[in-house]
């Protein structure tokens, strides 16, 4: 069962992530270089505004790095969900 | 020596490190028994030359001529491999054939897609007009000329996503620092390095090392800088995050795309990279098709060493399949990268899907080893090293 973790939980409020279907899923588990955030940026750039990209990362640092970039780049963090050994992080392209 | 039942043709698309290594590894596995009536290896490429791309850094900084890093492709292939210099225009996986620019049709039993990645400055408004690069031979030569004329001012280096050789931007800015100090003009030049995420390299360990180098060498840096547009008239680069830098010389690593033949054949993702199984390296949903090097969509570094390790796996598995045996080898995500630190020092990182990298302390010895590998690369291309 998915465990919703600490700080990013605010992003989960009002979002039924179990029912939300991302437009694109990027499996970046095991990616050290260029890494999950770079894979997310690559995917976001190729998607239309309003679409949701879900990235899978086995690096705990992603649960901090990705929300930080999302805020800086004015996109929307939809949810951060901890699965067994990896994180699913969804971002809606804002512009 | 591999026993073969019936005639088989392996077609390899691409004449870079991945395609060339697969061709030569396969030829070695058949122990020189390549004949048209048993096993045929056909390599299709767009160019008669083979270029060692890590050499572009040294070309741009005037340390070596471009010709030093070039060989005739034919000279790198083992006897029996058929070289076709005729760009592939389309792949039809259902029919099992490739069509080239001249209209020739090459049927295959096994196809290796090793078509690489290419910088695309046209993807960012103003970038092609406003920036120089060092990721192609032509760009490296142009940058060498521009650096030779550059007297004083601000040099800004930008990095876009995705791009090959993730350590090259760091190598460039560190080497520029050494270059201008060697010329006695470092105090006239401000160096600014920018990076798309919240540190100066995607690997935290490398970022920590590089940031200390930047502080020591007075290289300015800005993170969270994804290039949105360039104004070539006013000489200003703008980021999607709201940042901007006026520049006197802009050096960019543009976003990369897969080869046109991949997109034209409908086999790529949004950026033209082929969806690929991360362990078997088979093209997703494709029969008897493998993908090697930058052409994959895998979340690993687009680097020569990645292609090198993958080529070994694919050659073994294709040879096994031709022999009617199970294909047992799996790629573990292994990557090895030297990192030039300037001042005749270097370091390296090695990692896989499950093993994080730990950079070694930069040293003269590691730089010398990198210099030696620049010469030994041709043995790797031939499948020896």
List strands and helices in order, with pairings.
The complex is a heterodimer of chains A (95) and B (385).
Chain A: E1 24-27, H1 36-45, E2 52-57, H2 62-72, E3 76-82, E4 87-92
Parallel strand pairs in A: 1-2
Antiparallel strand pairs in A: 2-4, 3-4
Chain B: E1 8-13, H1 17-29, E2 39-45, E3 49-51, H2 55-60, E4 70-72, H3 73-76, E5 82-85, E6 88-92, E7 97-100, E8 105-107, E9 110-113, E10 117-119, H4 127-130, H5 137-149, E11 153-159, H6 168-182, E12 189-194, H7 204-217, E13 220-222, E14 227-231, E15 236-239, E16 244-246, E17 249-253, E18 256-258, H8 260-264, E19 289-291, H9 304-322, E20 335-342, E21 345-351, H10 364-381
Parallel strand pairs in B: 1-2, 1-9, 2-5, 9-19, 11-12, 11-17, 12-13
Antiparallel strand pairs in B: 3-4, 6-7, 7-8, 10-18, 14-15, 15-16, 20-21
Helix pairs in contact in B: 1-9
Short description:
In chain A, 22% of the residues lie in helices and 24% in strands. Chain A is built from two helices and four strands, in the order βαβαββ.
The poorly predicted ranges of chain B are none
Largest interface: A-B, 27 and 31 residues
Percentage of residues assigned to helices of chain A: 10-25%
**Average pLDDT figure of chain A:** 85
* Alpha carbon gyration radius of chain A: 12 Å
Give the helix tally of chain B.
10
Helix and strand content put the structural class of chain A at: alpha+beta
């Amino acid at each position: 069962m998915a465990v919703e973790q600490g700080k990013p939980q605010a992003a989960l409020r009002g979002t039924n992530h179990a029912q939300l279907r991302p437009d694109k899923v990027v499996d970046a588990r095991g990616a050290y270089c260029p890494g999950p955030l770079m894979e997310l940026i690559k995917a976001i750039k190729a998607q239309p505004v309003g679409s949701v990209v879900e990235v899978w990362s086995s690096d705990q640092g992603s649960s901090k790095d990705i929300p930080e970039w999302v805020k800086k780049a004015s996109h929307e963090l939809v949810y951060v969900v901890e699965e067994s050994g990896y994180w699913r992080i969804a971002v809606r392209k804002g512009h | 020596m591999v026993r073969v039942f019936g005639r088989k043709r392996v077609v390899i698309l691409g004449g870079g490190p991945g395609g060339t290594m697969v061709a030569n590894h396969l030829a070695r596995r058949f122990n020189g028994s390549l004949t048209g009536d048993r096993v045929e290896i056909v390599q299709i490429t767009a160019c008669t030359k083979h270029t060692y791309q890590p050499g572009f850094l040294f070309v741009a900084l005037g340390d070596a001529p471009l010709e030093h890093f070039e060989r005739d492709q034919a000279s790198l292939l083992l006897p029996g491999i058929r070289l076709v210099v005729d760009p592939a225009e389309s792949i039809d996986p259902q029919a099992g054939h490739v069509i080239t620019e001249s209209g020739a049709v090459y049927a295959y039993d096994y196809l290796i897609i090793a078509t690489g990645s290419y910088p695309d400055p046209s993807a960012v408004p103003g970038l092609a007009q406003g920036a120089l690069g060092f990721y192609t031979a032509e760009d490296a030569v142009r940058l060498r000329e521009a650096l030779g004329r550059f007297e004083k001012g601000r040099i800004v280096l930008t990095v876009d996503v995705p791009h090959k050789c993730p350590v090259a931007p760091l190598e460039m800015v560190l080497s520029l620092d050494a270059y201008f100090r060697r010329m006695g003009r470092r105090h006239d030049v401000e160096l600014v390095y920018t990076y798309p995420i919240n540190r100066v390299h995607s690997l935290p360990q490398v970022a920590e090392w590089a940031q200390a180098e930047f502080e020591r060498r007075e290289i300015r840096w800005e993170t969270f800088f994804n290039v949105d547009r360039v104004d070539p008239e006013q000489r200003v680069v703008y980021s999607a995050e709201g940042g901007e830098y006026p520049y006197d010389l802009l050096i960019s690593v543009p976003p990369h795309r897969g080869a046109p033949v991949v997109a034209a054949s409908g086999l790529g993702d949004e950026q033209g990279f082929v969806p690929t199984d991360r362990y078997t390296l088979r093209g997703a949903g494709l029969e008897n098709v493998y993908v090697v090097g930058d052409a994959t969509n895998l979340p690993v570094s687009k680097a020569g060493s990645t292609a090198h390790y993958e080529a070994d796996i694919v050659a073994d598995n294709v040879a096994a399949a031709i022999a009617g045996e199970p294909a047992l080898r799996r790629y573990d995500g292994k990557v090895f990268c030297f990192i030039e630190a300037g001042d005749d020092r270097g370091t390296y990182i090695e990692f896989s899907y499950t093993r994080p990298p730990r950079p070694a302390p930069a040293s003269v010895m590691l730089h010398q080893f990198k210099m030696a590998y620049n010469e030994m690369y041709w043995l790797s291309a031939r499948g020896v090293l």
